[in-house]
């Protein structure tokens, strides 16, 4: 008997962030979940009819053949990934199998920080001074002025992102990032070991979640991401809606919409990070063509506005998304946040301790711990993963901030 249900391929997912599975089940979709063959076999995931291991990073063409065979057995109606390092692969698979996704070129352009800078700059968007350094020639800073940020062109999760205030620390940081490119990013950023050096935008950071429908870009949420001054940029808090006035919101929205369009994200979700300088001028740092945080952005959007972002993402994958699926305008009625448990140290991870009842607070919706006892954790700018997330919702921004301060004071991360 042929199933009437739509069948979607999901490629890589941290299974401790189950929104994509939960929403698929609620929508009556059937997922085939392609997981990294280096990870343990998952089980018991809602909405998933089959789990298939693929050697996505060690042998992409074998991984593709496996997916093709599954597709021939039972056709996929769509393909989705929330995983940054899988985007390129998924774009190629989609193109080969005739499924809807952004083109490999568009995805590649968003993955590469040099292309992002070039594209935004040539489209008249606010762009910090920057240079590309391939390591072969002597470093020429041109007209750049300190402080600067040094980054791997194809990194993610702030791995190898270093702020420097003078030339000596710059040279040291460049060496450090070259090393991270070679040793830690080479599997994912193969053949792309370059470095971007750009001016530090001094001011608060924001993140916007958007959805593109047939070239039109809709801002679903703008959230606060703190104001980290470096020298390293560990992810901290995400609180939405951002505490900003209408005019600032308008300015940020315009810049974000223009950036998403410039990057060629004509359909589907994007997660755009930006900073606003002392003059109130927004600078896009990067735009990722995906739902942020492997589903965290879905939680934030749904909790604050009621809009089911992942449902819209599935509809987009199926080619069924219409503007009328979105309320107009999208208005937040609640505050929600993600408290990213800080690494706070290094060594062999033991446990996260907290004053017992703080996590029993009514504002806490989910607690997710990713570090397991015995994990070796290196300090930033190396990236060992996130210790865990605490997802909350509140009546207002102040309550959320106050609660996160209490978490800061009460969580203890133990290492040996
Ligand atoms: P990744 O892909 O690793 O997330 P990003 O370019 O987004 O790399 O940088 C990570 C973080 O570093 C940003 O979220 C921001 O806090 C900080 N950062 C990066 N570039 C700049 C910049 N030019 N000015 C100020 N902060 C920056
Ligand atoms: Ca990134
Ligand atoms: Ca970030
Ligand atoms: Ca980023
Ligand atoms: Ca609750």
Could you characterize the architecture of this molecule?
By secondary structure, this protein is of the alpha+beta class. The longest helix has 17 residues. The radius of gyration is 21 Å and the shape is globular. The mean pLDDT is 95. The structure holds adenosine-5'-diphosphate and calcium ion (4 copies). The site of one calcium ion (CA) has 3 residues, from strand 16.
Give a quick summary of the entry.
It comes from Marinobacter halodurans. This protein is an alpha+beta fold and 416 residues long. 29% of the residues lie in helices and 27% in strands.
Helix and strand arrangement:
Elements: E1 7-11, H1 19-27, E2 30-36, E3 48-54, H2 60-73, E4 78-80, H3 87-97, H4 104-111, H5 113-122, E5 130-133, E6 148-152, E7 162-164, H6 167-183, E8 195-199, E9 205-213, E10 216-224, E11 237-240, H7 246-262, E12 268-276, E13 282-288, H8 296-305, H9 309-318, E14 335-340, E15 347-354, E16 364-369, E17 376-377, E18 388-394, H10 397-410, E19 411-415
Parallel strand pairs: 1-2, 1-4, 2-3
Antiparallel strand pairs: 5-8, 6-7, 6-8, 9-10, 9-12, 11-14, 12-13, 14-18, 15-17, 15-19, 16-18
Helix pairs in contact: 3-4, 4-5
One calcium ion binds at residues 362, 364-365.
Pfam families: ATP-grasp_4, ATPgrasp_N
Keywords: ATP-binding, Ligase, Nucleotide-binding
Protein name: ATP-grasp domain-containing protein
């Amino acid at each position: 008997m042929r199933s009437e249900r739509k069948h979607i391929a999901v490629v890589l997912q941290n299974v401790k962030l189950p929104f994509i599975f939960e929403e698929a089940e609620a929508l009556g979709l059937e997922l085939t979940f392609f997981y990294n063959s280096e990870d343990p076999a998952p089980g018991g995931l809602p909405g998933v009819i089959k789990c298939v291991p693929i050697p996505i990073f060690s042998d992409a063409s074998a991984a593709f053949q496996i997916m093709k065979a599954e597709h021939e057995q039972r056709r996929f109606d769509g393909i989705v990934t929330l995983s940054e390092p899988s985007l390129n692969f998924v774009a190629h698979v989609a193109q080969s199998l005739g499924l809807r996704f952004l083109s490999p070129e568009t995805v590649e352009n968003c993955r590469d920080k040099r292309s992002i800078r070039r594209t935004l700059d040539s489209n008249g968007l606010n762009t910090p001074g920057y240079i590309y350094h391939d390591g072969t020639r002597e470093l020429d800073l041109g007209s750049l002025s300190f402080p600067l940020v040094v980054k791997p062109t194809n990194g993610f999760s702030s791995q190898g992102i270093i702020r420097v205030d003078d030339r000596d620390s710059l040279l040291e940081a460049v060496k450090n990032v070259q090393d991270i490119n070679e040793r830690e990013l080479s599997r994912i950023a193969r053949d792309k070991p370059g470095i971007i050096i750009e001016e530090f935008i001094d001011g608060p950071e924001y993140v916007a979640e958007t959805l593109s429908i047939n070239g039109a870009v809709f801002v679903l949420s703008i959230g606060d991401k703190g104001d980290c001054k470096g020298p390293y940029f560990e992810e901290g808090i995400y609180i939405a809606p951002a505490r900003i006035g209408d005019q600032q919101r308008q300015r940020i929205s315009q810049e974000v919409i223009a950036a998403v369009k410039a990057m060629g994200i004509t359909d589907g979700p994007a997660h755009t990070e930006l900073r606003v300088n002392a003059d109130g001028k927004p600078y896009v740092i990067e735009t990722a063509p995906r739902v942020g945080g492997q589903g965290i952005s879905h939680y934030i959007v749904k909790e604050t506005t009621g809009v089911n972002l992942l449902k819209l993402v599935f509809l987009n994958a199926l080619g069924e998304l219409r503007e009328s699926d979105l309320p107009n305008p999208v208005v937040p009625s609640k505050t929600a946040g993600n408290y990213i448990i800080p690494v706070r140290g290094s060594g062999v991870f033991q446990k996260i301790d907290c004053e017992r009842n703080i996590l029993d607070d009514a504002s806490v919706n989910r607690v997710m711990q990713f570090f397991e006892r015995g994990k070796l954790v290196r300090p930033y700018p190396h990236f060992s993963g996130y210790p865990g997330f605490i997802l909350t919702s509140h009546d207002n921004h102040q309550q959320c901030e106050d609660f996160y301060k209490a978490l800061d004071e009460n969580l203890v991360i133990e290492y040996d």
